Amino acid sequence: MLANYGYKDGSGEYFITIDTEKCNGCGACIEPCPEHCFQIGSDENDPLRDEPVAAVVPGQRQKLKYLCMPCKPAGRAVNKLPCEEACTPGAISHSWYHVLQR
Amino acid sequence: MTTGTEKRKEKKVEYWKWPESRSTTPGIDWTKASIITCGIDVGSVSSQAVIMTDGKLFAYSSRRTGYNSPESARNALNWALEGTGMKPEDIHYTVGTGYGRVNVPFAQRAITEIACHARGANYLYGPSVRTILDVGGQDCKVIRCDERGKVETFLMNDKCAAGTGRGMEIIADLLSVPVQDIGRLSFEVDEEPPPVSSTCTIFAKAEATGLLESGWPLNRVLAAYCRAMAHRIGELILRAGVAKDFAMTGGMAKNEGVVKRLAKELNIDILPPSFDTQIAGAVGAALFAKVLAEKEQKK
């Protein structure tokens, strides 16, 4: 499942996508995020799944635009975001990269 | 001579108040059922209770939530059970869902509305449904699912009131039009007006007032607002992608003014509902309750 956490408002779309098929629940994403956006737990959107999965912390979902800003500085090239880099299965992606030169 | 201020007595009509409903499927003898499950969907605006016997829809009720979630959950359940002879003790397993899912005191488990709406739409509209749009009281969800109703991708907008049922209720109150009549009235115009330029609920309210002042007839303002709402929801859907069949759940599915304009905007057919679209989440919860109860029995 592609779980899109975030929102869309007048200024743009701010979603962090977690591919739950790829996510193995290892928790490597928790530590590198300076704003503590990730958590590991049972899949709240798939009650029949028993394995743990990563999700964006509920309180953080509504302010991703601001929380992710330090990792996406304007005018500076960033190859990979800390959360993306930490995720070995490659389950995490962001919907907005407009300030990055990838 | 009278002193002090005189107050004119007003008869207050609340135009946002959509009608509550309940129903029982005829011809089902629940006493013979081997498993009775219940799904409670406590939303921000409405609460539904669905009773299922052996995975078949037996009774449901849909009510306004109010300020007390546990109380609304109980009220919805009691109304659904009314006249059926069933008691709350007869239910084997209850699942809570929706915004207030953790506030259902008698539920054994809480499941997000994303999973429940996919499952519910799969049951109500049939397994051909691939895209579900749920426009609820204060959020908007787009869900893509497979033929078993399992979620493949979802996205949810719960930060902004634009493109939600609450936005429509606010316009209903502002223009003194019962919310369930907006859809019909919005088509009673000579020609389709351009949409209101702002989809933000607060600014759209100001803009609607402005349009009335400039001489627009009421129905034309409603049409402009419905169109803006359809556009706003449509943008969100495009991010998730559209696949056939497309179905809508939630209260907004009853507003033809938005549904028809959305179908035109996305150039797709929206499956016509043959039931109360607001119960989809609770139906999904009751179906999950059955699966979870059977899982527990096996242990």
Task: Summarize the structure in words.
- The complex is a heterodimer of chains A (102) and B (299).
- Chain A is built from two helices and five strands; from the N terminus they run E-E-E-E-H-H-E.
- Chain A is mainly beta and 102 residues long.
- In chain A, a hairpin with a 2-residue loop joins strand 1 and strand 2.
- By secondary structure, chain B is α/β, with parallel strands linked by helices.
- Chain B has two domains: 21-124 and 279-298, Nucleotidyltransferase, domain 5 (2-Layer Sandwich); 130-270, ATPase, nucleotide binding domain (Nucleotidyltransferase, domain 5, 2-Layer Sandwich).
- Helix content of chain B is 36%, strand content 19%.
- In chain B, strands 1-4-3-2-5-6 form a six-stranded mixed β-sheet. Chain B has a four-stranded mixed β-sheet with strand order 9-8-7-10, with helices on both faces.
- The longest helix of chain B is centred in the C-terminal third of the chain and has 23 residues, at 218-240.
- The model of chain B has no long low-confidence stretch (mean pLDDT 91).
- The chains are: A mainly beta (102), B alpha/beta (299).
- The A-B interface holds A 1-4, 6-10, 13, 15, 44-48, 62, 95 and B 109, 111-112, 114-115, 150-160, 200, 235-236, 239-240, 288, 291-292.
- Strand 1 (2-9) of chain A pairs parallel with strand 9 of chain B.
Task: Provide the fold topology.
The complex is a heterodimer of chains A (102) and B (299).
Chain A: E1 2-9, E2 12-19, E3 38-42, E4 52-56, H1 64-67, H2 82-86, E5 92-94
Chain B: E1 21-24, E2 36-42, E3 46-53, E4 56-64, H1 69-81, E5 93-97, E6 109-110, H2 113-125, E7 131-135, E8 140-145, E9 151-157, H3 165-175, H4 182-185, H5 201-213, H6 218-240, E10 246-249, H7 256-266, H8 280-298
Parallel strand pairs in B: 2-5, 5-6, 7-10
Antiparallel strand pairs in B: 1-4, 2-3, 3-4, 7-8, 8-9
